[in-house]
């Protein structure tokens, strides 16, 4: 199904005025296509025909499809934004999504790897292949910098300084930030860049740091697959994603005493509120440690019969 022209116009508006990334725009496109498909199914083909019932019916359909809270909230956000845009453009007289809210949900703490698990992953013996040297450098750099995987695969050679140990990253909203890296990542990237990358390119050129045997940039999907292979080799039983390394990077920094503002800057979060989720992770970890090791544990039965407290002699 083709998207309504006003949806395409809205996405163009977001790209130009909002400076949203390609990945975010594609997510909005998918969400608005879901809404448009639902609207056609219930006989609503024009924006002017949409009512609050159309939007609430769409939300019910997402619930029936067992879409996660996060995905449903993102869909509602995309629909709200589009309807607000239609109202501003005077395509509709009233915004039918005004006053609607997605279901409240508790804070979902990010899943992380322990420092021991990260060490198991990074200390894998390097196989004698070009790809394995490249893959090791990518995983080292991802954990050392906390990049998003979409940022990692688009790192450019010209944006990395191995002498000082930092790289320039273009993140969400086309915002550029400087991120430092540690010595392990510097050495892994240095070896890959000078010894391995030329053999992958075979006289071809690319501005991107990480390339395939075809000389093309590594994709997010390909990195996800290579990470899963390395996790299995390391003997880690958790199901992990590239984003878990980003979460682990932030959590381990805070555990080591880093301040929240510095972590925010390295992650490229627009607001400190987004970064504060990692303080919840640290508090949960400390609570677990306390519950596990504190000597005065809760005794089953508490104070009462048989406890000897308050009973007559």
Structure description:
The protein is mostly helical. It has two domains: 5-88, Tyrosine recombinase, N-terminal domain (DNA polymerase, domain 1); 115-291, hpI Integrase, Chain A (Orthogonal Bundle). The protein contains 13 helices and three strands, in the order αααααααβββαααααα. Strands 1-2-3 form a three-stranded antiparallel sheet. Strand 2 and strand 3 form a beta hairpin. The longest helix is centred in the first third of the chain and has 20 residues, at 22-41. It starts with a helix and ends in a 20-residue tail after the last helix. The model is unreliable at 300-313 (pLDDT under 50).
- The average pLDDT is 85
Quaternary structure classification: single chain
- CATH T-level fold name of the largest domain: hpI Integrase, Chain A
SSE succession? HHHHHHHEEEHHHHHH
How large is the share of residues in beta strands? under 5%
Proper CATH architecture of the largest domain: Orthogonal Bundle
Helix-residue proportion? 40-55%
